[in-house]
Design a protein that fits this description.
mainly alpha, 79% helix, extended
Length: 209
Amino acid sequence: MRTEIPFLISGFTALFAILAFFVPHRPFGGLQQKMLVWYSVVTGVAMLIGVWSLFTNHWNKIRRRQNVLYSGFLLLGFLLTFVLGVYSIEKYGDAFAPNSPFMFIFNYAEVPLQSTMFALLAFFIASAAYRAMKIRTIEASLLLTAAVIVMLGRVPVGAQMWHGMPKLAEWVMQIPNLAAQRGILIGVALGSVGMSLRIILGIEKPYLR
């Protein structure tokens, strides 16, 4: 029963969602909107469970003396943000009010941390691009050529070197790059359909893991 009931719930939910999408008549006509409401409710409950799991996991790490510093900072930031958010809602009516303590934490803690993370990611991306663009095969040569054309076409130096460089870079982005993106999206869509069918038919059961 522990495997059959989740399988039946998943299968019937997927079946009703498909019928609601393709059949506009009652009783399936308005079923999709009701399922979206239930989806929002389940998402909210899952978020609460995730927050509780995160809190208890790091609290247990502190009790076991594992990564006490990082887990302590996480719990401290979590509790401080939660308390200031509730206080801002009670006093200002909105946690995102300009002068609220919650926005102070967001502007002077969250935003600088995000800027630092993305600044570090820039160096990692540059390092990965350098390793990926070593000319060893024909594909790597094409990748390097396209990257050089796009980079030169996006900066004023490229236009000074050749007036047609920006147009060439735009052509690379709109024709070969867009064709590759569409191919990837088609593959992702087919993979999603295949995985959905495996879940509906009970071949794949990720909800039981």
